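quick one before i forget lol
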Amino acid sequence: MREVLDTLIKLQEIDSSILSLKQTLEIIPIEIKNFEKKMDEIDKQFENENKKVINLEKKRKEKELEIEDINEKINKLKEKTSQVKTNKEYQALLKEIETIQESLKKEEENLLLILYDLDEAKKVLKGIKGDIDKKKKEIEDKKKELENQINIITQQIDEYKKERRQIISKLPSEFYEEYMELMKKHKGLAVAQVKNSVCQGCFLHIPPQLYVEIKLNQSIYHCPQCGRFLYYKPEEKLEQTQVQTK
């Protein structure tokens, strides 16, 4: 029975390792998607800032043309001043020029605001552009690392499965069937350690006499509550003390 118990313990260790690796495999694609999302966000941020610069450039050109038209209009009106014949016409022309000049001043102020916004937008875009390649490379490297990790974990699982098949071949079928039922019932933990009189599967306090028997690890015992196979593992410090004593 000691051999059966050791085999069950080993089988549980392998299955726990396989389950842990499979859980990691489930997480990795999520992490990869998160990295892809970050790359999309960087691209989107760059695209938005670039659009902002393009729009501001367009506004700048429109405003410059508008100012150019106003200046041209003012110049034409000034030329007219030499052609007017009455003082009344002259004063009306000056008033019109003054009004347009005020409009020009306002549009020039608007142009300054556009130039300021454009300058700021270009600075932001330059910052993103300078950082984008570096960030993308970092993300791409992490993605490759995770993809490589998938291959490594898959190989590890295959190795564990080979070892598992060898172990199963040494285990009597009735124990294996019971083991698999417990695995299914308890979501991956069929063999539990008893530590300080407590089943580490369901945390039941094991009766003293049963605990004494389990500590011998010479037979197959089950937890009175959860039904898992139980085993005892000497404390590490105790083992070290024993080695030193020897």
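fyi The longest strand covers residues 191-195.
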